[in-house]
């Protein structure tokens, strides 16, 4: 991880920039920028955030796309190695447990004679049962066998009617389930879409029910979109450097709440 951090640090120093200056520009906290340069990625909450921070920081340092992809692939390679090491540790633990099993089997041989006792007891019980059944059949000889019960025509019709009603009920339940699934699919397709296009490098923050779902820098020409059931809030600098579309309709976000050179626009769900 330190190779990535050293590379980023060298690029920053070439530009003559401090971490404090970059923090103000790309809205990533200084301690996280310092963690990237030191290779301490574990203190950044969430691997998805690490990739986003690396990408935004590298773009701000004016690195080309090839260098950015190389950095990201190097980070992903470290993640894969960590995963392989964890799996190897789990396999080693399983092998140790398997080696301990023979000692358990040796201890079980001390109770081996009891198995014969249980087997003999079970056999005797079966023989007694067979003897009792045979004796019961002999006593039952000479007892007239009752004739099979014959259902009347009315009873047959009732049974057939019950079967038809059961099939109708099952068909109705299946129809209701299919209708519900169709409505759910239609509902998913009708979720509102929020699309944002950056006209210049700018900071934005997206909230869903007061929970942050995105925060970072959009670079000029970059486009992002969300499809969310809940209501959304867009927070960005004022005057805004973005174009906003909600369900393909352009929105003037300057009509939202403006405070301390920051505009907050609320999108109601449809």
Give a concise summary.
With 270 residues, the chain is an alpha+beta fold. Helices cover 57% and strands 18% of the residues.
Structure report:
The structure is a single chain. 10% of the residues are buried. Among the domains are: 2-80, lambda repressor-like DNA-binding domains (434 Repressor (Amino-terminal Domain)); 193-267. It is an alpha+beta fold and 270 residues long. It has helices at residues 2-15, 19-26, 30-38, 47-60, 65-108, 112-140, 153-189, and strands at residues 193-198, 202-208, 211-218, 223-227, 232-237, 242-246, 249-251, 257-259, 262-267. The strands form 2 sheets. Strands 3-2-5-9-8 form a 5-stranded antiparallel sheet. Helix 1 packs across helix 3 and helix 4 packs antiparallel against helix 5 (65-108).
Alpha carbon gap, first and last residue: 45 Å
- Summarize the helix and strand pattern as letters: HHHHHHHEEEEEEEEE
Can you identify the CATH class of the domain at 2-80?
A: Mainly Alpha
Structural shape: flat
Task: Explain the layout of strands and helices.
Blueprint (H helix, E strand, L loop, with lengths): L1 H14 L3 H8 L3 H9 L8 H14 L4 H44 L3 H29 L12 H37 L3 E6 L3 E7 L2 E8 L4 E5 L4 E6 L4 E5 L2 E3 L5 E3 L2 E6 L3
Antiparallel strand pairs: 1-4, 1-6, 2-3, 2-5, 5-9, 6-7, 8-9
Helix pairs in contact: 1-3, 4-5
């Amino acid at each position: 991880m330190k190779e990535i951090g050293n590379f980023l640090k060298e690029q920053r120093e070439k530009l003559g920039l401090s971490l404090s200056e970059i923090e103000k520009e790309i809205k990533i906290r200084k301690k996280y920028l310092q963690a990237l340069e030191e290779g301490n990625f574990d203190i950044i909450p969430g691997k998805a955030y690490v990739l986003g921070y690396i990408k935004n920081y590298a773009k701000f340092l004016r690195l080309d796309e090839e260098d950015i992809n190389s950095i990201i692939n190097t980070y992903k390679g470290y993640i894969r190695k960590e995963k392989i090491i964890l799996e190897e540790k789990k396999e080693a633990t399983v092998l140790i447990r398997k080696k301990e099993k023979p000692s358990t089997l040796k201890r079980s041989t001390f109770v081996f004679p009891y198995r014969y006792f249980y087997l003999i007891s079970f056999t005797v019980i079966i023989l007694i049962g067979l003897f009792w059944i045979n004796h019961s059949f002999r006593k039952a000889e000479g007892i007239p066998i009752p004739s099979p019960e014959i259902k009347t025509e009315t009873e047959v019709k009732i049974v057939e009617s019950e079967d038809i009603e059961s099939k109708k009920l099952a068909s109705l339940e299946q129809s209701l389930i299919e209708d519900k699934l169709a409505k759910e699919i239609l509902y998913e397709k009708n979720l509102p879409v929020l699309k944002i296009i950056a006209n210049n490098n700018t900071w934005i923050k997206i909230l869903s029910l007061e929970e942050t779902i995105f925060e970072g820098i959009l670079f000029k020409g970059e486009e992002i979109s969300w499809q969310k059931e809940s209501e959304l809030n867009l927070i960005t600098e004022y005057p805004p450097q973005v174009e906003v579309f909600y369900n393909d309709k352009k929105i003037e976000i300057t009509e939202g709440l403006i405070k301390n050179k920051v505009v907050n626009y609320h999108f109601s769900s449809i």
